[in-house]
Design brief:
single chain, 21 helices, 2% strand, globular, disordered C terminus
């Protein structure tokens, strides 16, 4: 069997194994025990991870000459044609990210005592399948549908297993994301109708636009719809308030997948669809987008500094870092957009790790307030080491994936506007302050409050807790030392963006 055929099988396995696992769990729900559900969930996510790693390696070693899609397949099951799946240089790292975080989230959930674990893992598998599909389908409408498949489990899981304030968070999430999804859908339909494409596939839209490009007015309007609709899903300022509450209230595994992976979907669609098809629209929206992105970076960064609750600090930090990704798009350059892809991967893995470690801290201490902790390094040196590494990764220090993303974005912003570049760098300084302060408050100094009374009984990370942390950290370090594993194919794939510089 040829390598390409094997890769097609692996691509379908990565997407449909978690979905099949969810269906299997639903059909045989009454007969599934907690251990069986956990085993099925870990197995399904493990298949996705193994397949994604192989596909990443094969694509990186044999990039299509035109920077286009590879491994395209449309399987037919029971006379029903499934959505076309394929990967390009933009989707490969996001596809791998979904698999890596999904596997880590499943392992973390498997070691946790969960009420109704059968339903929990059913939802987790369904969410991962939706994520894998969203980052691999070449049909714009199916991108949207897979995203919705991945979104619903988060809402259900939060209402059942969520923490304090889950009802308000669920309501806010439902309102914001419903509106964002509807505006996005209007933009997708408008793009389809105005191009006169035969269907919603990226190829059909590209062919239609080659014959009859959209006017500047239509590009401006459709790009604006996509920007604000998808921007709401990514928590772009001022539509961000739903995100911190949602992540703080959501169960840890779902917070890892939502903040680490699902939130990247909006940026992914903008890069994969809006930028190549609506370049004049991006040119018109570049300056407003840069301003909104800076609000994410600086204003929400300052809000993050004011947080005492550890999980809220991580949640707001996740929102703040998205601003830098948006500013990469605003730079209207291959360098900036490529940097955004790199940072999306790095941020996804690092924030997932931060949520996981924060959950470990509260489980061991029974405390969210960072000012009531302290001194945990003596009792939990391994946990402290992982937390420090995750903090340094999120700050964009060398040796981690985030570094290359932030560096290239700032370089692109210097050409776009030195002022915007300086303000973006200021945001990184702010993130360093609250990140290192959290490290100091939790792990350094003397234990305080109730922590001091039970300090000797606090345990370090177990082996089952170390493994998912190692997986996420390994991904960050690998890309940190081998950024070409992502960037090697991006320049050619994003060549369409180069034309944007002519429209400045």
């Amino acid at each position: 069997m040829e390598t390409n055929e094997i890769c097609k099988i692996l691509l379908n396995a990565a997407v449909y194994t978690p979905l099949a696992g969810a269906v299997l769990a639903a059909v045989f729900f009454p007969f599934f025990g907690s251990r069986s559900a956990k085993g099925l969930g870990v197995f399904a996510s493990g298949v996705s991870l193994a397949a994604a790693v192989v596909l990443w390696a094969v694509y990186a070693s044999n990039v299509p000459s035109n920077g286009g899609f590879a491994f395209a397949s449309s399987p037919v099951i029971c006379s029903v044609e499934l959505p076309t799946l394929a990967l390009n240089a933009v989707s490969v790292p996001m596809f791998a990210l979904a698999a890596i975080v999904g596997f880590a989230a499943s392992l973390w959930a498997a070691k946790t005592e969960i009420g109704n674990a059968r339903l929990y893992f059913l939802l987790l598998m369904f969410m991962q399948g939706g994520l894998m599909g969203a980052f691999s389908t070449t049909n714009i409408m199916w991108m949207y549908m897979f995203h919705e498949f991945a979104l619903v489990p988060t809402f259900i899981a939060m209402t059942i297993w969520g923490g304090a304030g889950k009802r308000m968070a669920a309501m806010q999430m439902a309102i914001y994301l419903t509106l964002g999804a509807l505006v996005s859908l209007v933009g997708i339909i408008a793009l389809y109708m105005q191009t006169g494409a035969d269907d919603f596939s990226l190829l059909a839209v590209a062919v239609a636009l080659a014959k009859s490009p959209l006017t500047a007015q239509w590009q401006y309007a459709i790009f604006g719809l996509l920007l604000f609709g998808l921007g709401t899903l990514v928590s772009l300022f001022p539509f961000y308030s739903w995100a911190p509450r949602t992540y703080a209230a959501a169960p840890t595994s779902f917070a890892m997948l939502h903040a680490g992976v699902l939130k990247k979907f909006g940026l992914y669609v903008l890069i994969q669809v809006a930028i190549p098809f609506l370049p004049l629209g991006l040119g018109d929206w570049a300056k407003p987008l840069a301003v909104l992105a800076l609000f994410n970076v600086i204003y929400i960064g300052l809000v993050t500094m004011a947080q005492r609750d550890l999980k809220m600090m991580v949640s707001y930090s996740s929102v703040a870092h998205m601003g830098l990704c948006f500013s990469g798009l605003a730079s209207m350059s291959v360098l900036g957009v490529g940097g955004a892809v790199l940072l999306m991967f790095g941020h996804g893995a690092s924030v997932a790790l931060m949520f996981m470690l924060s959950n470990a801290i509260v489980n061991k201490t029974g405390q969210w307030d960072m000012l009531k902790m302290g001194g945990l390094y003596k009792q939990t040196p391994v946990l402290a080491s992982f937390f420090l590494a995750a903090t340094l990764a999120s700050l964009g220090l060398p040796c981690f994936a985030n570094f290359w993303g932030e560096l290239t974005i700032l370089a692109s912003l210097w050409n776009f506007s030195p002022t915007v570049c300086a303000l973006g760098a200021t945001g990184l300084i702010i993130s360093a302050i609250y990140g290192l302060r959290a490290m100091a408050n939790v792990f350094m100094g003397k234990p305080s409050g109730e922590i001091a009374k039970k300090f000797d009984s606090i345990s370090d990370l177990s082996l089952c807790e170390k493994i998912p942390a190692i997986i996420l950290l390994a991904a960050l370090v690998f890309v940190g030392f081998c950024p070409k594993s992502i960037t090697g194919a991006l320049d050619e794939n994003l060549s369409a963006v180069a034309t944007l510089t002519q429209s400045k």
